[in-house]
Every structure is written in structure tokens, then in C-alpha cells.
Amino acid sequence: MNRKEYRKRKNGRRRNVLKAVLAIAVTLLLALSAYGIYLMKQAEHAANQSYESLEGRAMSDLRTEKVEPLEDNVSVLFMGLDDSKKRDQSESNTRTDALILATLNNDDKSVKLVSIPRDSYVYIPEIGAYDKITHAYGYGGARSTIETVEELLDVPVDYYVKMNFNAFVEVIDALGGITVDVPYALEEKNEADIHGAIQLEPGIQEVNGSEALALARTRHYDNDIERGKRQQMILEAILDELLSAGSIFKYDDVIDAVGSNMKTDLTFKDMQAFLEYAKDGSLDIENLTLDGYDDMSTGVYYWQLDEESLEEIQDVLQSHLGFKPDTSTLTNSDSSYTGETESGEYATE
Q1: Mind listing the pLDDT tens digit for each residue in 134-149?
Q2: C-alpha angle 242-246-250 in degrees, rounded to nearest 5
Q3: Would the pTM of this model clear 0.70, i.e. be above it?
């Protein structure tokens, strides 16, 4: 074989290899596009199933006009409910075991998370009296909890998401687990109330859904403040895993896991808008803590909130939502908020 024939054959092989690579790339692109369309349809169906508006509540009473994600700064209240069939809990007996308010700032795409201790002694508008915030749901469902949080933090709750513990466990399992920092050796019951079923050693490790739930719920090793911090850590770990490149092929299982275990007044369009906050694969999240102290003075345990800490959190959240530091000069054309101004009066529509 002469040199000319050798080069011709070699170039021919190169062209064949290039064609094969291009064919594979096109096939993968088409497959990913088809999978993306499938996921979009599946997610839309799940979102439509999960959608639940609160009757008579088109928006927060602390707003003068409806807000939209990515157009305005908004807030979302996450409620973790224990409504397992094992405990046969009706709506009136269901309590919120976890409450986290997230405020999202549209300008810098940042998120602030504040966990509200379940035993916080707060005013519940539904009954016109003080009680543990965990009881607010039993008095009037999601609406009562939302109104109580608004009363406590003096900011509007624009959207809510409530999930039971089945969804929590199944979502984490669908993701293949999450990475968390377990602060201490832990022995706890699982979601089926089997004592000692969950055992964890301290340190950074991967946990499954049942283990993550036990870590989020345990109340035997520290206090409600630390419990809130653990819940914030776990929520961040879930978000990190969801945003990781390798998780895209797990999304269909995640969507299935959410299913009927979640209810929200976020539409599918709203959910898509929130993805803009993490489009670069990361979220700017700050965790906030409501300080307080244990109180058994009445014979019933309460978490008494520290007033100075509460006022600081209120100020941070109001600033993050854009109501401060210019609250005293705001008019209806400047903001849709009707909260308290620096003079102590409330803006009107």
C-alpha cells in the first residue's frame, strides 16, 4: 500500500469515527430533549394535582396587591405535617411539626430561612388567644397557621407548601440520599414509630429518608432552636442534591414521591419561576434563628420567644422583602405592603 492510499484509508476511518460520534451526540440530545419534555409534563401534572388554594384568600391581608415570583420579593411558608394513618389524625388533630418561612429577594436572588420552634408561645388569631404555634393548624388548618405566622413575624406569607412526612422520606430516597452533618450519636424511632429503628453516629455522612426524618424531628438531644437549625440544614441539603447535575435523571422519581403528599397554592408557572433563583446551580441562603428560653411556669412547656431577637428577625425579613429601610416613606405606589411603619401606624390601601 502506497502512502497516498494509506492516508486515504486513514482519513476515511477518521470520518467514520466523526460520523459515529455525531450520531451518538444527536441521539443523546434527542433523548435528553424527550426526557426533558416528559419531565415537564410529569411535573405539570403533579403540580396540578398538588394545587390547593385557600378559600377566600386571594392574597395576604398584609398586601394591597398580588405579587408574582421573579417580579416581586415574595415569601413561602413550608409546613411539615404529621398526618400518618397510624395515628389516625384528622385535620383538627394534625399539628405542624416543622415550620420554616422563606423570603426570596428578586434583586440579588437570595433566600432567608427562619425556622419557628413548634412550641413557641404565640398569639393565634383564629382563637384570639395565646398557645403553641404547633396547635394553630388544628384550630383552622393552613389558613390559621399562615395568619399566626404573619402575626408573629409581621410580614406577609404569599405562598404556602405543606408536606407530610411520607413525602419527606420518599423525596430523599428518590434522590438517593442527602449529605448532612450529624451533630451527635442518635437513636430514634422511625416514621412507623418503631423505637430504636434509627441509629446514627456523629459526623458528615449520607442519610436516607427515614434517617433524615429522625434527625429533623428528634427532641431528645438538644432544644427547639437546635432542632430548627437541623431542619434548615436538611432543607438546604435537599436543595443542593436537587440542583446537582447527577440528579436530573432522578427527577421523575422525586415528582412521583411528592404526588398527593404535598399541597400548595403555588401554580406550575410559579414553581418554574422559582428555578431562576438557582439557575447557576447554587443558592445564596442565610439561616435565621428565633432565640428564646424554656418556660414551665404554667406547668405546660412553652418556648418563650426573646422579644429583642424577634424584633431583629422581623426587621431582617421586612428589609429582605423590600419594606425597609424606606418603610416610613412608602406609599401605595411604592409597595404592596400594609405592615407597620416606623411611626407605629399601619399603611392603608
Answers
A1: 999 999 999 999 999 9
A2: 65
A3: yes
